[in-house]
Structures are given as structure tokens and as C-alpha cells.
Write a structure and sequence with these properties.
Elements: H1 2-13, H2 23-33, H3 35-39, E1 48-52, H4 60-63, E2 69-74, H5 77-86, E3 93-97, E4 109-115, H6 124-134, E5 135-146, E6 152-154, E7 159-161, H7 167-176, E8 180-186, E9 190-196
Parallel strand pairs: 1-2, 1-4, 2-3, 4-5
Antiparallel strand pairs: 5-9, 6-7, 8-9
Helix pairs in contact: 1-5, 6-7
């Protein structure tokens, strides 16, 4: 996990913040989590939301204004600091720098989502079970996983070890954790799962 923290801290030091990507790059990123991904959350001003792997707030900027309260967790200190700057105008946001598996959340959530984060989790089953336990009854979990089967992301200046996701394994883990998969579909680069507790 230290390599992951160092990598994302380094991206901030290199002034790489997806919130400020060009429109072209934003459109490219939407191939993992575009408008349909956000629509699957069924957001409303009465719902509480957790993002696992909030990063600098790229998705949170779209989600937080549409819900009652928003919590984002990330393991990278510099990334969370940048997210706090990017989301400072929103008053329903709490950002936490901690390990998702260890953090003691003060409440459960109506909606939990994650995009481009599960590849950093070696134990996918444990992550899904943790999410199930953090959801309110009838809560939704919306997940986008990368189709790329490689176990390394090469950034040119450094490589980072990842644990590639497999749609069949994720589906099995969701069912084993008592989730009901309401919808599963593909985008160009991702598998999307919409699951209910």
C-alpha cells in the first residue's frame, strides 16, 4: 500500500489533478464512469453517499451537489489535501485520509460507489463485504472496474503494481456477500455493476 500512497502523492507533486483535465481527457475518463454511471446511483437530496477512492474529487464534484451528505475516503494524504481544495465550496462534504479497510465510519450510507480503485485492492471479496456492511438496508453499491488485465500500470517514470479486476470474480463476490446484482453492463474500458443490499 505504501507504493500506492507514494504514487498518488507523487502525482499531486507533479501537478497531475484530473479535476483540471482538458475536455478531451475528461471525455476519455468518462469511458469508465460517465453520465450513465452517475445516473445508476439514483441520487437525491435525502441520500447519504460514500466514495471509496475519492482521489482529488473528480467524481465527487458531480455527485456531492446531488445528495444530502457526501463522504470520500482515500489513502493518499496529498490527494486528500487537493480534494479539500477542489471541493471547498461544497458544505455537505467530509473527506477522510485513511485506509478504507481500517477506518471506523461513524454511520452507514445509502449509496456507496467506487471507480478505478478496486484494482488497488488485493482482496476484492473483503472490500465488497466491507461495503455491504457499510450500506443501509436497500442501499446501492455502484462499481466500475477496469477491463485491463495487466498487473502493472506503467506511468513512464514509474510502475505501480495493481491487482486486475475480473468481472466474473467480482460478480461471484457480490453474490457471496448477499448483494443482489440489479444491473451489469460494459463500457469501452469498464465493467459496471449496480448492486443492492
Amino acid at each position: 500500500m505504501n507504493d500506492v500512497i507514494l504514487h498518488y502523492d507523487s502525482l499531486i507533486k507533479e501537478n497531475c489533478d484530473p479535476v483540471y483535465d482538458s475536455e478531451e481527457l475528461k471525455e476519455y475518463m468518462n469511458k469508465w464512469d460517465g453520465n450513465s454511471f452517475v445516473e445508476e446511483m439514483r441520487l437525491s437530496k435525502s441520500r447519504t453517499v460514500l466514495e471509496v477512492g475519492v482521489g482529488t474529487g473528480r467524481m465527487a464534484l458531480r455527485v456531492a451537489p446531488l445528495c444530502k451528505s457526501f463522504v470520500g475516503i482515500d489513502i493518499s494524504p496529498l490527494t486528500i489535501e487537493r480534494a479539500k481544495e477542489n471541493l471547498s465550496h461544497l458544505h455537505n462534504v467530509l473527506l477522510i485520509c485513511d485506509d478504507f479497510f481500517r477506518h471506523n465510519f461513524s454511520s452507514n450510507f445509502d449509496i456507496i460507489y467506487s471507480t478505478l480503485t478496486f484494482m488497488h485492492f488485493k482482496d476484492k471479496k473483503r472490500a465488497i463485504k466491507r461495503i455491504y456492511d457499510l450500506l443501509n438496508e436497500n442501499g446501492l453499491f455502484v462499481l466500475s472496474i477496469d477491463k485491463n488485465p495487466s498487473d502493472i500500470i506503467d506511468y513512464g517514470v514509474r510502475e505501480i503494481k495493481i491487482y486486475p479486476d475480473n468481472a466474473n470474480n467480482i460478480s461471484a463476490n457480490l453474490k457471496q456477500s448477499n448483494f443482489t446484482i440489479e444491473k451489469q453492463y460494459e463500457t469501452e474500458f469498464a465493467h459496471i455493476f449496480v448492486s443492492k443490499k
